[in-house]
């Protein structure tokens, strides 16, 4: 790999973030301004897992098509991406896909079992399994680029957020072969067989890095790296066995970032002890789960108010998804509290502290977006 580090292409002039026409450019959108620590025309919000099972129109469209198949039909992936924007008026779309799509595109036998999650035909556990991992090429990502292009043409000045799984979270599924609570397999491998671990994580970083790069070059205006399971690691293990590979994944798009470029969000759950490392891995925005207060995160990160400090990062989060099912006044009070906690941060992008639960009443999300837009900014 590593030819990624020689990428010199900046964003194409036709990219939605670079367009001169203010009507079409995403640069002045509330989300991009928010990610840059600036104030836009309204208080922006989007929701992780806003596309998908909480929407009846999603379930209807998906009938008869498996989850991963639907991600690879550009018209369908694009339509599912747009559904929550139309319904809720959220300020950004998140691309409908999955963190295991790069594996599928590379020819690895993987499916999403409903109610379970990603399941591999054969878990990847030995040095021999890792040696057999397929070579990755840019062509593989064509259905992804096509879906992104269709989507951004519809979105106009509203940004599309691209994403990828961080190497650890993806590798955890590869080694376990299915979802697990404790991630014992990958945590054993990183110590027992460091060489295999390095090869596996290097491959996964390249797969995720290329997946994210394809989305951004096709028109996504921001990117998010999901390290959902990073919270299962000690700080030391994260720092030495995982963080370097998340950096490698983000290196694939580093030339597209910077003041005028793509904001990068780094999100995980249970990450209170490693938020500074997640920032240092190369993100300008840190996603915070619902377990921590934003004011405490801000203090731990040494953020100072205003966008100019050297180490400052914008925070994203962290409405507790459990409260989407609570009485409205309980939810409203919680959301107002989250906004107050985020007020000292160099910027605050409202989102959930993890994904929308499938059982969520979509009308609650629509009402929540209305509330957030009505609050002074
Ligand atoms: O709306 C969005 O956020 C965009 C699409 C998106 C999906 N998955 C669609 C999806 C995104 C960003 C993801 C990321 C993802 N996938 C993560 C990181 C975020 C997180 O939630 O922590 C992880 C860990 C995965 C792996 C994965 N895929 C799991 C654990 C599951 C759930 C399994 C289940 O059925 O409970 C999936 C399936 C999945 N990914 C669905 C969707 C809409 C549900 C598929 C269905 O309709 O049955």
Short précis:
The chain is 42% helix and 11% strand. It is α/β, with parallel strands linked by helices and 377 residues long. The N terminus is likely disordered.
> Helix- and strand-based class?
alpha/beta
The parts where pLDDT drops under 50 for at least 5 residues are 1-8
What would the principal axes of the Cα set say about the shape? globular
Counting DSSP H or I runs of 4 or more residues, the number of helices is 15
- Cofactors and ligands: coproporphyrinogen III
List the helices and strands and how they pair.
Blueprint: H1 30-35, H2 56-62, H3 67-71, H4 74-88, E1 93-94, H5 101-105, E2 110-113, E3 117-120, H6 127-131, H7 142-155, E4 160-165, H8 167-176, H9 184-192, H10 194-218, E5 222-227, H11 235-251, E6 264-268, H12 275-280, E7 285-287, H13 294-300, E8 314-319, H14 328-342, E9 348-352, H15 362-374
Parallel strand pairs: 1-4, 4-5, 5-6, 6-7, 7-8, 8-9
Antiparallel strand pairs: 2-3
Helix pairs in contact: 4-7, 7-10, 8-10, 9-10, 10-11
The site of coproporphyrinogen III (CP3) has 24 residues, from strand 3.
């Amino acid at each position: 790999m590593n030819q990624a580090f020689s990428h010199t292409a900046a964003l194409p002039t036709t990219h939605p973030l670079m367009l001169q026409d203010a009507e079409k450019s995403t640069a002045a959108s509330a989300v991009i301004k928010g990610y840059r620590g600036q104030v836009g025309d309204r208080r922006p919000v989007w929701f992780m897992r806003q596309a998908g099972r909480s929407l009846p129109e999603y379930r209807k469209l998906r009938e008869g098509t498996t989850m991963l198949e639907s991600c690879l039909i550009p018209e369908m992936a694009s339509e599912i991406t747009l559904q929550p924007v139309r319904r809720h008026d959220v300020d950004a779309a998140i691309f409908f896909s999955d963190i295991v799509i790069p594996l599928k595109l590379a020819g690895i036998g993987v499916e999403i079992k409903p109610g379970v999650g990603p399941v591999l035909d054969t878990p990847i556990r030995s040095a021999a399994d890792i040696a057999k991992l397929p070579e990755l090429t840019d062509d593989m990502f064509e259905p992804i680029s096509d879906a992104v292009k269709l989507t951004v043409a519809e979105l106009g000045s509203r940004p599309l957020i691209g994403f990828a799984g961080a190497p650890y979270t993806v590798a955890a599924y590869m080694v376990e072969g299915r979802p697990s609570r404790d991630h014992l397999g990958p945590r054993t491998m990183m110590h027992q067989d460091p060489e295999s671990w390095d090869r596996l994580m290097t491959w996964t970083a390249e797969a995720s890095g290329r997946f994210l790069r394809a989305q951004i070059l096709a028109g996504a205006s921001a990117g998010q790296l999901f390290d959902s399971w990073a919270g299962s690691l000690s700080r030391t293990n994260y720092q030495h066995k995982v963080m370097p590979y998340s950096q490698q994944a983000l290196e694939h798009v580093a030339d597209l970032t910077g003041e005028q470029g793509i904001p990068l969000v780094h999100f995980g759950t249970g990450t209170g002890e490693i938020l500074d490392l997640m920032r240092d891995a190369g993100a300008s925005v840190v996603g915070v789960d619902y377990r921590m207060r934003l004011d405490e995160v801000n203090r731990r990160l040494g953020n100072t108010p205003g966008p100019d400090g050297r180490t400052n990062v914008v925070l994203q989060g962290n409405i507790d998804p459990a409260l989407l099912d609570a009485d409205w006044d309980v939810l409203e009070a919680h959301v107002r509290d989250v906004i107050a906690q985020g007020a000292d941060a160099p910027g605050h992008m409202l989102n959930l502290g993890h994904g929308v639960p499938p059982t969520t009443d979509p009308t609650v999300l629509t009402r929540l977006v209305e509330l957030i837009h009505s609050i002074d900014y």
